[in-house]
Amino acid sequence: MKKQTTILLSALVLTGFYSPIIQTTNTQAAIVRDVNDMVPSGKVLHFGEKFELSDLKEEACIPIKAYAETGQYLETGYVKLNQRNIWDLKAGKEIGVGAPSIYTKSNWGGHLEYEALNVNLRMTYDNNTKTFTLFDNGKPITTITCEVNEGSARIHYVLKDTNEEIYTHEQEQVLQYKDFPSEETFMVEPLRKIYDAPEPVGYFDAYDMDFEALANWNPFESEDDEDDVDFDSPIIKKYNRKEIDKDHGTEFTVYLEKAKPYTINFKVYLDNKPYFSKKVTGELHGTIPLQDEPKMPDSKVATLNKNKTAMSTINEYVPQLGTSIQTGSVLHSKIFNQNFGKIGAASTVDGQPNFLNTGIYAISGESLEDGQVFVNDDNAGRTTTLELYYESNQADETPDTSVIADVTIDSNLGKQVVKDVTGKIGEDIKVTVPQKDGYVADKTTVIAHVNPDGKITTEEKVTYTKKNTSEEKPGNNNQNNNNQTDNPNGNNTDSNLPSHYNGLVGTMKKPVDLYDFNNGQMTKNKQRQLADHTDWKVDQIITLKGIKYYRVATNEWVKDSDIYRYVAQKGIVNTKDVEVTYLADVEDKLINNRGLAANTAWKYDRIAYLGTNETKYYRVATNEFVKASDVINN
């Protein structure tokens, strides 16, 4: 609340005569502070109305209209006079007046409290004219102008993708007075904190979702040691109290982002062959109900290998974390042994553990409520694959029916021979299609049959097509446009003159120095650098003293050792049948705490050439690259 100030008027001496002396007093008329006091009490008088003050035998009030700074009429307040005020006015004294607070409703019914901007109010009674006069800094006034001191806001919660409004809420005491205009903000309440508000199933709550920041978050570079990603930054709404009145500035809309679901892949293998699989999904703020348990391999003929229990996780919103993989009997015990019995009657099926429901319950990390697993923010966009491996109980004397043979595959480039393929007689097996330099095959594997005579044959054919030339590694210097006149023998010597070069380069983990090229020499630019992890188009190349430089702007060059070259191309690569395909960062350093699972497909958005040997990689995340030789390009 603003402090009231009182100005004391001294006697005014004019040339030639004395004006009447008005005595002053700090006694103030009553200030309206409660909405119940915004009604007249006692005798109702008016500014400018003639009234014999000596006839006033009771308390009185004088109405005064209040307006918002926008010019809109708000309500009528009352300046209330008690007996002390009346005595002072009768004695010819000027009294200080506290401007009334104004309580009103917005057009939608929200609470608004205003306070007058007129803080230096004085009132007099003229015995000659028999009238009251109200002054603001010496100027007579009959109305007051007010600004919002406190109020409520209406929040509309709308689904961003469908524009459907799912809830409306009056958020109280948000338009509060602040000392600085820049602080005229408030935090929107998320739905989960509002009693009786609906859960936005399938959507993030009312939070400020910065997906770009999530996709670039690095737990190893954060100031604290928290590994959790922030999904609940508050939504901040700004307002301008000077523009608020009954009809304006008190309604706000927030848009709820659609969330990608939580996906669980449950896979069972028998002798390394698929036996059962199921995909289960759950919407954010929704639930995953108990599932029908599949019939597992009979324990009489097959044994569960707990050491091979495997779990891998991919996070859609934080792809930079890659795929986290866990295996082993300790993992199996953590997921299953510690959780049997916690999901009620569904703990066992025909006397065998309920692996499906227990697995969903355990890897979600959530409590079970009414036979359902709740999907929280951390699980949004997450895909978890849980794998169990059974092995047949075969006697040692079981004959080995495996054979090793070459497989011939027909193709448009002639017969392709795959050497030393292993398989068991009577089985169908997958055979990897040979890769041909400069070509892309229409399939990565073919199905072959192991015949009783020991031969392995396939009836499938493969078609090879030439690769898009844009996938080829860009030349490190443009041979067609190089300055051959300065270097007639074609040797790699300094020319001191730039050559044309069209390509793309990227910076790495630290800012990159720029160089100016003048008089055949490079000089470091001390004012400018290229930011880390940024991409640049280059149009010229030059070699000076054995060092290559690329031009990224007019007379701005970078060393080849400070950048890496790449081709902007999108596609899909598949990992091979190995337990983990490891990744590298942009500096060609191994990332040894995560990798890609076997036989999985990954999107890439560029082909990069990393390290001093410019090894070919595919970029599958912001700072994660997979070596071309470790994957199969589709």
Automatic annotation (TrEMBL):
Residues 467-501 are annotated as: Disordered. It comes from Companilactobacillus pabuli. The lineage of its organism: Bacteria, Bacillati, Bacillota, Bacilli, Lactobacillales. Residues 475-494 have a biased composition (Low complexity). This is Surface layer protein A domain-containing protein.
